[in-house]
Protein 1
Amino acid sequence: MQDSETLGQLLAVLRRFVNERLIPLEAKVSEDDSIPADVLAEMRALGLFGISIPEEYGGLGLSMEAECRAMFEFCRCSPAFRSAFGTNVGIGSQGLVMFGTEAQKQRWLPGIASGEIVTSFALTEPEAGSDSASVRTKAERDGDSYVISGGKRYITNANRAALFTVMARTEPNSKGGSGVSAFLVPSGLPGVSIGKPEKKMGQQGAHICDVNFDGVRVPVENRLGEEGQGFRVAMQVLDRGRLHISSVCVGVAERLIEESVKYAGERKQFGQALASFQMIQAMLADSRTEANAARAMVLEAARKRDAGENVTMEAACCKLFASEMVGRVADCTVQIFGGAGYVADHGIERFYRDVRLFRIYEGASEIQRLVIAREMMKQGG
Ligand code: COS
């Protein structure tokens, strides 16, 4: 789906769905720490689980630019809703899309696109967070199988996942990324166990869990890419994922700006609307400027990626700027709402907690800076 008219229709449908269906449910989802099953079914029916999956495998086949535009629109609601399909669209499926064999794609992608299969990306470990090349989970070759053992940490959607992309070390004596391979591991295999969802600062309704692999036997056909190529698979998946998350940050910022403008127009102090005070106007203007800048950066990087260019540096720039931007916008929003921003009723404090994660997952801000600087040295600027 690449023509602008069809994309325009999708964006209009998403706007209506978010406004009418999701925003009214935000408080309940947060309180219950769960998204109702009928809402998940509606998201599946809208094709959201497969927006990035090629049409030949049952997805909507959006370009990166179109996917980012869809997220600008969809993410005007609690980020927990996006998380329900985020792994299917991003880090849980894109290794398969980019590096999968035709047989692997035929087997898994249609179910991922429809949302029948939830996917999850298992890279992080207790001792391998930002230093993701130091994974200790091992995969030992045994005839036509690999036997996987090790523990993964903070894995998004693990409790709902039917399929994991698991990064595991196939060369036991190797250090760093070179001895790591990627595997497609169905969650129903003997030896896979999932921990309880963690209690978190925000994004209730989205879940992360530990996952343990205890002698899990997977056939050689489930290896994704060549042996030893798994870290590259992970990094390329993350390059793309970082653009996706950046567009999520822009969407959330748009919602917060809308809320701020509305509240500043309605709320009166000293006999005037808050919006008439220049110190409030400055916060609104700064938020608008930064959100526009992030939007423009994301779209430019997405277009480059669609044109086949390497966007490692651009994706890291976007993730760094957009995640920090939405943090500042959320802070201004709390400030504009004042006491009402701090108490739970208006939901602003919930967004303030929710957006904190954007500076941490899919590569912390410090890692984005490291990636940017390294690429600058390589590229000479
Ligand atoms: N695309 C393709 N290949 C890449 C790549 C990319 N974006 N980034 C790195 N690689 C390759 C390198 O070319 C190198 O290959 P060779 O060994 O053949 O030279 C290999 O991967 C190792 O890369 P590097 O030396 O840069 O690894 P480091 O351990 O020094 O650093 C960082 C890697 C820190 C950038 C990486 O671990 C990272 O992104 N960490 C954050 C992880 C993260 O985002 N976690 C979030 C949880 S997952 S949701």
Note: The first strand starts at residue 119 and ends at 122.
Protein 2
Amino acid sequence: MRKVMIAANWKMNTTPREAQTLVSQLLPALDGITGVEVLLCPPFISTVVVSELIKNSGVRLGAQNTYFEDKGAFTGEISPAMLAGMCQYVLLGHSERRGLFGESNQIVNRKIKAAAKHALNPVLCVGESLEDNDAGRTEDVLGAQLRQSLEGISIAEARGLVVAYEPIWAIGTGRAAGGAQANVTIGMLRRTLAGIFDEATAASVRILYGGSANGANIAEFVSQPEIDGALVGGASLKADEFVSMVKQASTAKG
Ligand code: PGA
């Protein structure tokens, strides 16, 4: 059984003080909710304070990015060696990293390998543009993103992998994909993973939906058989709404 994950991507929001406030609102409200792994991905600068706050809870910590070298003259970058031990996960290949910062599948691939070396589980984000979707190229685009990003990754390394399917046209637009539609696409991603690795690995990898997921639509996604949770942007900054999403996810699989 794949454990449902609800992951918060705070993006470039919250000062360290605001992050602290948000976590202190979330923790008591999340306490006692079972069957869901909650992951918080704050900005790098709040990683230390958040890791201290959550250390006695079941909440997991993720980074929003990492570089692929361990150390050296890479001004402004953060390495997986620095995150290891504090974070359990790292988001890689988010469409904002790909689109705004020029990250190719080859760069994402190097980052996945570097993360795996430091026991950081990658949350590999893939997604198609509206243009690709309209032109019927979704399967090709997503297949290429998965295959190229995961090239040379062993089955052992893939065990901790999480994939997030985030159609670019649904991110931050209020225009979420439909649950049934996302389920079909995620099923296709799982078959692609089976081709890259094997059936057992594909069956064990969690695949999340992301893109305008919120308190009103989360149940529609998590109740689908192929969808193992959500990567949540905007709605994760509101404590009440995020907690409601985690609660709904804890019962949505029935
Ligand atoms: P959104 O962002 O929930 O604000 O659409 C999701 C994401 O980019 O991970």
Note: The pocket of 2-phosphoglycolic acid is lined by residues 9, 166, 171-172, 210-213, 231-235 (CB under 6 Å).
